[in-house]
Specification:
Radius of gyration: 17 Å
CATH topology: TATA-Binding Protein
Number of strands: 7
CATH superfamily: Kinase associated domain 1, KA1
Order of helices and strands: HEEEHEEEEH
Number of domains: 1
Oligomer: single chain
CATH architecture: 2-Layer Sandwich
Length: 131
């Protein structure tokens, strides 16, 4: 009976976990599917917003990878970083010539969300652009 109970709990856990799509069009391990990203639009060029995003991630942690998603144009740039032992994805997309959108997403190594860190980083990007 105990083995059956353990098997049911283990099966439910495996079914409840999985992968989620990140803002940079990659996949990541996740336990929860709750909101884990924040977006902000700025009256700045793509290069200015991406540079500010890189600065913020470097000031708070380390950049692991930078890339341009293959399924889009050069008007999109993404980076993967690690801040406070969380994986952080940042995607910057040009809406038009003078407006860009930044999406920030963070997950712990156990696959849970960290909205406080996401809000902090997005706010720091806005402050970096105000300099």
């Amino acid at each position: 009976m105990k083995n059956l109970f353990f098997a049911v709990i283990a099966g439910a856990t495996i079914l409840a976990t999985g992968c989620v799509k990140t803002v940079s069009d990659t996949s990541s391990f996740a336990i929860t599917w709750s909101k884990d990203s924040v977006a902000g639009r700025y009256q700045r060029t793509l290069d200015q917003v991406y540079k500010a995003s890189m600065t913020v991630v470097i000031n708070n942690g380390v950049i692991i990878n930078e890339y341009i998603p293959h399924d889009s144009t050069n008007a999109v740039r993404s980076l993967l970083g690690r801040v406070n032992d969380r994986k952080v994805w940042v995607r910057v997309e040009a809406i038009d010539q003078r407006t860009s959108q930044v999406d920030v997403q963070a997950r712990t190594k156990w696959g849970t969300t960290d909205l406080d860190l996401v809000h902090q980083l997005e706010k720091e990007i806005a402050l970096e652009l105000a300099k």
